[in-house]
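pipeline/complex-builder :: batch 7 item 3
reading input block
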Amino acid sequence: MPVVQVEDVHKRFGAVEVLKGIDLTVERGEVIAIIGRSGSGKSTLLRCINGLEQIQSGRIEVSGHVIDASGKGLRDLRKDVGIVFQSYNLFPHLRVGENIMLAPRVVLGVSKAEALSRARETLAEVGLAERFDAWPDNLSGGQQQRVAIARSLAMRPKVMLFDEVTSALDPELTGEVLATMERLAEHGMTMLLVTHEMAFARRVATTTVFMHQGRVWEMGPSERIFGSPQTPELRQFLGSGLK
Amino acid sequence: MIRQFTESEFLFILASARWTLLLTVMAMLLGGLLGFLVALARTSHLAPLRVLAAGWIGLIQGVPVLMLLFLSYYGLSLAGFDLPPLIAATVSMALYASGYLGEIWRGSIQAVPWQQWEASSALAFSRPQQYRYIILPQAVRIAIPPTVGFLVQLVKNTSIVSIIGVVELARAGNLVNNATFQPFKVFGTVAAIYFIICWPISLLARRLEGRLHARRAG
Amino acid sequence: MGFQFQFQPVLARTDVLLDGLWLTLQLSGIGILFGALLGILLAMLRGLAGRPVRLLVDSYVEVVRNTPFLVQLLIIFFGVPTLGIRLSAEQAALSAIVLNLGAYATEIVRAGIESVHKSQIEAGLSLAMTRWQVFRHVVLAPALARVWPALSSQFVLMMLSTSVCSFISVQELSAQAANIESDTFRSFEVYILVTLIYLALAILLRLLLAGLGAVLFPTGSGLGRLRGQTGR
């Protein structure tokens, strides 16, 4: 059974239709990269899968939870879907460890000891075990983003969404975040990522989706998408984007 | 004998608002003058002046307006002046305003980017010229919204001078309430008049602030 | 000038001043505590409830902020008993203090809540928190931390304003000053002394609130950049 199933999803902002009937399936353990120009709807699609944006029609199913236009059952779905944002969005009033422990404690209701062990475990996973007591603002952007990843992982999600997570980072800091994500992929995490890092997508993603004008324009194994693009739009995108 | 709250009582209260307004205007003018000097002293390059002004602001903002009123009232009479209460009231309100306006305007002067000082120094402006032509014109724009906002505080605080016998709004309400004993009607009327004076000023202050922020952002 | 300061007659009445000081402290302490709680509660309610509630809260805030504390005090002191509710002067004073501070605190906390960026709320929601959980754990603490200085100033102002309660013969510090004044006729000395006591109270309260802020919101350098952490 697929972890994520997107069927004919339409999304409008006012009069502008941003998603014009998206179909997408993500199997367990798959890593899917979504590429495309800004405005192609790729970030919106990711936000819809987490229910941060409401869809007008169509259906999204994530590990058994269904989102439709009614927007019910969101919280159960979000327990299984982690999302990491471009702007990290750590909670500035909580220390790193507390940032991670908060949601397991109040949402899942796990014991403090359990939350603590999850926080230590996930921090170690992103290579920041020693920063447990740091304040978010005292971390570099790359470290903050890795904490944000750990915060999502502590909820033990079935799938992780990454929304241009390196776009706000200085070039020398993107490497550590990408390495963290690559390690997650190797450990079998199901991942869906919107990214501008073409080399990373090509190397790590099993499947790459090219979105254009609110549609899935072309998709397939990453090697083929990057190696022999079929449509002129993708060829042009790769030509201009891959300098 | 208990009287009714009739039109004449209402008009009595309404007419007393002129003293509230007069007191506010006088306190604003006098307090503004003094507050301006405080703000200049507070941003002076002479350390003793800065300390003095900071002390004045700390003092005024650290004591009740009621105490300023009593000190003015008894202090003036001790100094040998036999003056009507309205003068003591004006003096106390002006002292009060000077402490708050001084601080508001200090902030406005310091909100002007320091490069403006540097740039004007480089053009050989003297210190007074810098204030006159470069700094104050910019500070005024920043100062207007909070100054208008403070006006509301001033109007409201004039109510306490009723205790030394100035028959402004609050005192008029008290007199009428003693005669009619209809506290909700009487003080409701008094409150409504204050509100009618203060609310438009509050709204104006908020709008000016919004406009200032919009201009700064853009 | 023939006037000579004579503080002895005033200092002989220190016990009376201490009584007044104690009542001022009680009025201020209890008033600030409940006023702040009321403000937080209403700001929360305003954020979570629908339009009618918001309108109601806003009206309360505007009415209180645009009328004098003295008039509010008089309405409660003279008005409430005509409804058949017995109310001592101290109770009237305390009610007026809480209602007055509550309105200012509502406005301040509301501004703090609105300064928390939308992306913070989204981060909370995406972790499957309910709206209430997001509000409680993600929004409220940074909001309060941000507006703590403004709240503190308002608390100090309120403490100073308790002096107005002497108008309805609540025997707090300034009322006791008036008592001593009418006994000793050393008006200027009494009020200088009491003014200095208020000044000391204000300074102490500011220090106390600053310390409390450091304990309650120990966020390192974090909150200054709350607004900055938004991405583009």
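note: Residues 8-219 of chain C form a domain with the MetI-like fold fold (CATH 1.10.3720.10).
queue -> next item
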